[in-house]
Amino acid sequence: MKHMSPAEILEHLDALYPDAKCELDHRNPYEMAVAVILSAQTTDASVNRVTPALFEKYPDLESLAGADLNDLEQAISSLGLYRNKARSIKGFAQGVMEQFDGKIPETIEDLTKLPGVGRKCANVIQSECFGIPALAVDTHVSRVSRRLGLAYSKDDVNTIERKLKRKVPKERWIKTHHQMIFFGRYLCHSRNPECDRCPFTEICHEKNKNFTSKEG
Predict the structure, then answer these.
(1) Which of 85, 90, 120, 175 is catalytic?
(2) Catalytic residue at 138?
């Protein structure tokens, strides 16, 4: 099985998805943060269908913090895990209002203190809301990293994040995050990946399962 350096992988991703970007519709940090919390285990397209009406009814953190939970559940009921997510976004808004004087915090440490915000969400909020270099690892990024040999199959998301940050230049973290999501979403699917149009088939650990990884 052939080897490809991280730099070569990035070159191919540049060619495939030069304009990759966040596909969650938002107009400000408040909308971005709520949308990314809602996007857990749900497609961005599904989130984009519910957020226009949601943000019309709750246009800011203060209104969301004071929302009736049943009304909030109804507003996002088409999403999976909508009851948990309703509690999370209300709790997030309350937490920002009470702990951070109504201003969404910028650090991973502060963000992950808030309901509904794990490390992945915090990384996305950092990069999309504040332009801080971050590399969030979601299901697409995890799958692509393992298949391209950028991480071991047994690695958890935190380990994958650390490895990617070592191998990808810091100024490219945000861009690479989006490119890997696009690659996983539109070509390297979990099931039935489109290998016939993939530039990575010769290094793919999924396609060459008998290969023993030398990644470190």
Answers:
(1) 120
(2) yes
14 Cβ neighbours under 8 A, 6+ residues apart: 179
User: What's the CA gap between 132 and 174, in Å, rounded?
Assistant: 8
Q: What is the 3-state secondary structure (H, E, C) of the chain?
A: CCCCCHHHHHHHHHHHCCCCCCCCCCCCHHHHHHHHHHCCCCCHHHHHHHHHHHHHHCCCHHHHHCCCHHHHHHHCCCCCCHHHHHHHHHHHHHHHHHHCCCCCCCCHHHHCCCCCCCHHHHHHHHHHHHCCCCCCCCHHHHHHHHHCCCCCCCCCHHHHHHHHHHHCCHHHHHHHHHHHHHHHHHCCCCCCCCHHHCCCCCCCCCCCCCCCCCCC
Could you tell me the two tokens for 216?
Answer: 């470190």
pTM above 0.85, yes or no: yes
Q: Give the model confidence (pLDDT) of 182-194 as tens digits.
A: 999 999 999 999 9
From the candidates 138, 155, 163, 175, which is the catalytic residue?
138
Residues 94-129 have pLDDT tens digits of 999 999 999 999 999 999 999 999 999 999 999 999
Confirm whether 120 is a catalytic residue.
Answer: yes
